[in-house]
């Protein structure tokens, strides 16, 4: 969702989480992916498989 451009608040609302929880998990993901900015996220992730369901939204 973050790679698609959703804000932390939007992600939190969609997943019924606190915004801070989203921030914490994204920070950990950035560290593991070796990136420092949200804008780098789409390039750091592998493409979705062709049979993956489309995201609602």
Proportion in β-strands: under 5%
Average predicted local confidence, pLDDT: 90
Class computed from helices, strands and strand pairing = mainly alpha
Order of helices and strands: HHH
- What distance lies between the first and last C-alpha atoms, to the nearest angstrom? 10 Å
Q: How many strands, what sense, and barrel or not for the largest sheet?
A: none
Q: What is the overall shape?
A: globular
Please describe what this structure looks like.
By secondary structure, this protein is mainly α. The protein has a domain at 8-44. It has helices spanning 8-15, 19-33, 41-44.
How would you concisely characterize the structure shown here?
The protein has a domain at 8-44.
What is the topological layout?
Layout: H1 8-15, H2 19-33, H3 41-44
Descriptors for this entry?
single chain, 57 residues, mainly alpha, 3 helices, 47% helix, globular
């Amino acid at each position: 969702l973050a790679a698609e451009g959703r804000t932390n608040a939007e992600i939190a609302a969609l997943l019924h989480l606190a915004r801070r929880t989203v921030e914490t998990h994204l920070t950990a993901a950035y560290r593991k992916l070796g990136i420092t900015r949200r804008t780098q996220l789409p390039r750091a992730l592998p493409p979705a498989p062709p049979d993956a369901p489309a995201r609602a939204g």
